[in-house]
């Protein structure tokens, strides 16, 4: 029997892997046998996540503290991963931030900060991993976590810098896919909608957001834990070998309307 999504022996790097969707996707890949490198700024959190994943799934893990907006730190982090494992097969660029305020009140610092983390950090991680690991190996899977708000605007939570940055991630994905296809590196993006997490549950369960879900989302609800995992597994696996430059919304149909 063929196991289409077996990732045993592969090394997966997940940024923003201290809480929320990053941890969920890291666990999903660990469940398929991948070794996991958890990257984030908060050392204690990623060390706890790495230990939890190792204990639960029996895979080798590594916690690497890194500010993805700092080119030097990114290069050092990638060097450390390659020194330990000798390879990087999968990169999930999940780290991000979000400034919510009316556009007319957004400061330059907020706008630049959003671009530096969501777009600049995504590029810096992809550049370092491709140059130091994937191009030499002639193999790689890069998954950029954009957002449904990288595809459309919104009236619910004003966040124009976030829209700009995630829209940049969407087309950065296409650009990198076009350049790196010759190295057998597939670059795709996932555009999540709103998902439940400990941080979002109270907001999403509010009367306003529940009405918004019924009005704006064809499935009439927000995403549950685990519903992003299969998209990440598919795009990480050798089975997706002929899929690159794809922008995959996982949003309950929000961007279909």
From TrEMBL:
Keywords of the record: Oxidoreductase
MF GO annotations: oxidoreductase activity, acting on the CH-OH group of donors, NAD or NADP as acceptor; quinone binding
Gene Ontology biological-process entries: fatty acid biosynthetic process
UniProt record similarity statement: Belongs to the short-chain dehydrogenases/reductases (SDR) family.
Protein name (database record): Short-chain dehydrogenase/reductase SDR
Species this chain originates from: Treponema saccharophilum DSM 2985
Organism lineage string: Bacteria, Pseudomonadati, Spirochaetota, Spirochaetia, Spirochaetales
């Amino acid at each position: 029997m063929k196991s289409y999504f077996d990732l045993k022996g592969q090394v997966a790097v997940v940024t923003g892997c201290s809480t929320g969707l990053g941890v969920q996707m890291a666990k999903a890949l660990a469940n398929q046998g991948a070794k996991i490198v958890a990257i984030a700024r908060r050392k204690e959190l990623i060390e706890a996540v790495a230990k939890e994943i190792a204990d639960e799934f029996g895979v080798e893990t590594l916690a690497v503290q890194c500010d993805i907006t700092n080119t030097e730190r990114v290069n050092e982090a990638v060097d450390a991963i390659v020194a330990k494992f000798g390879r990087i097969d999968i990169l999930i660029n999940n780290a991000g931030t979000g400034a919510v305020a009316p556009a007319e009140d957004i400061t330059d610092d907020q706008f630049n900060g959003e671009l530096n983390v969501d777009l600049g950090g995504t590029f810096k991680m992809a550049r370092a991993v491709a140059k130091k690991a994937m191009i030499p190996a002639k193999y790689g899977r890069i998954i950029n976590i954009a957002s449904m708000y990288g595809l459309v605007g919104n009236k619910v939570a004003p966040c124009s810098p976030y829209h700009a940055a995630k829209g940049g991630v969407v087309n950065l994905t296409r650009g990198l896919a076009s350049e790196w296809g010759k190295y057998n590196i597939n670059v795709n993006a996932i555009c999540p909608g709103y998902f439940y997490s400990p941080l979002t549950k109270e907001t999403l369960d509010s009367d306003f957001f529940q009405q918004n879900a019924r009005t704006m989302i064809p499935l009439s609800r927000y995403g549950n834990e685990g519903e992003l995992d299969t998209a990440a597994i598919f795009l990480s696996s050798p089975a997706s070998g002929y899929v690159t430059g794809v922008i995959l919304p996982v949003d309950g149909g929000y961007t279909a309307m």
